[in-house]
Structure formats: C-alpha cells, structure tokens
Write a structure and sequence with these properties.
2 strands; disordered C terminus
Length: 156
C-alpha cells in the first residue's frame, strides 16, 4: 500500500476509534497524536503501526459477539485491503486486555452447537493466519486441535 493511501486508512480507523469512544473527532489532533504515540511520521512503519493499533482497538471496542472475530474481523483473505497487515493486526489485538480471551471465546462460540460445520469452515482465513503467526500453536492450543473440534460429537 502506498504511503498516501496508508495515511488515509489510518485516519479512517482513527475516526472510527473516536466514534466508538464517543469523543469529538478533531482532525487537528490527529497528526500530533500519531507523532506522539508512533514516532516519525515520515516513515511508513510509523503509519503501519498506527493502522494496526487502531484496527485492533476498533475490533475490541466494536465487538458485539466474539465469534465475529473468527468469522469476519480476523478472517483475512487476499482480496481484503488490510491483508498485508494481518499478522501485525492480530499481534496488536493479542496485546490488548482480554484479546486472547476474546478469541478463545469466539472459538468456543463457533464450535458450539449454534454453528454448522459449513459455517466453521468459512473461517479458513483465520486458521491460516494463526498457523502463519504462531508456527502451528495458538495460545498453547495446537491449530490442528482447533480444526479437530469440528469433528467432535460435542460440536454437532
């Protein structure tokens, strides 16, 4: 993603964050906040950090049901505009209070009787992300066991 587009995406995520927090969004405070929290605004890495930070915060703040983290928020596919930042967004989310617990809850919900195996299978982008990010282990839970839960009698 080009720097100009990245800056625009960060601004949009920052605006969403302000909306979620119910604070007045004052564009004149945007750049000083980015500079103070993330560093040199001439560097692309600064904007990437800011993007991933605000995406993660918005995922947590705007969460209605934990299973949506698995089926939508972190179900990255190559056609999504934020696909190239998927690892950093997940890592940032895991640093948030209750980040890992919310993902665990989302998996528990997804593998409950409320969801079909077809619906569970729609989360392949999430499973792939976890495998890529953690080397086949996610929070002490092997990724293979997450997939095996689907076949268990409890989840039917």
């Amino acid at each position: 993603m080009k720097l100009k587009e990245l800056k625009q995406k960060v601004f949009e995520e920052w605006q969403d964050y302000c909306w979620f927090k119910q604070v007045v969004c004052q564009p004149e405070t945007f750049k000083p906040e980015i500079r103070e929290r993330f560093g040199d605004m001439r560097r692309k890495v600064t904007w990437e950090k800011a993007l991933c930070h605000f995406k993660a915060l918005n995922a947590q703040i705007g969460l209605l049901d934990a299973h949506t983290l698995i089926l939508y928020t972190f179900n990255f596919t190559p056609d999504r505009w934020d696909y190239e930042y998927r690892h950093q967004i997940l890592e940032e989310f895991l640093t948030l209070p209750d980040g890992l617990e919310l993902i665990k809850l989302g998996l528990e919900q997804l593998f409950s009787r409320d969801f079909t195996s077809e619906e569970r299978g729609q989360a392949d982008g999430f499973y792939q992300l976890v495998e890529e990010s953690t080397g086949r282990e996610f929070g002490k839970l092997p990724v293979e066991s997450i997939r095996r839960i689907e076949a268990s009698p409890i989840s039917r």
